[in-house]
Design a protein that fits this description.
elongated; 4-stranded antiparallel beta sheet
Length: 126
């Protein structure tokens, strides 16, 4: 999935700022009193790494073309592979809470229905 030039550069700058913040949390002089034991150091590294992971995943999920109401109106049903159709009764994308390996994420996706097997599905990506 690609971001447009300006948005991509903006997200890159945000990520670099977050990475600098993580680096500073490990190496700034005023942080060293809190990083004495190996466990304290490891906890900080894991915490900062998890924050970066969650941010990257959140940005990628929100940039997904299926999060956009202008996304393709027809997709394949994950159960029977027939063409599904976006549910026209839904006026907004349906908010969903996901538990991922990078932590909890909130996304909104359009509801689709399969006219063949009547499965309702919420695409998460292509």
């Amino acid at each position: 999935m690609a971001l447009s030039g300006g948005l991509r550069e903006q997200r890159r700058k945000e990520f670099v700022a977050k990475a600098v913040e993580a680096f500073d949390a490990m190496f700034d002089e005023d942080q060293q009193e809190q990083l004495i034991t190996l466990t304290q150091r490891e906890d900080r590294v894991l915490q900062k790494g998890a924050e970066l992971q969650a941010w990257l995943l959140e940005q990628h999920l929100h940039a997904d073309s299926l999060a956009d109401p202008a996304a393709a109106d027809v997709l394949r049903c994950p159960k029977c592979r027939c063409l599904g159709v976006r549910d026209e009764e839904e006026k907004e994308a349906v908010p969903r809470a996901l538990t991922t390996r990078a932590g909890k994420q909130e996304i909104a996706r359009w509801k689709y229905r399969c006219p063949s097997c009547r499965t309702v599905f919420f695409p998460l990506g292509r």
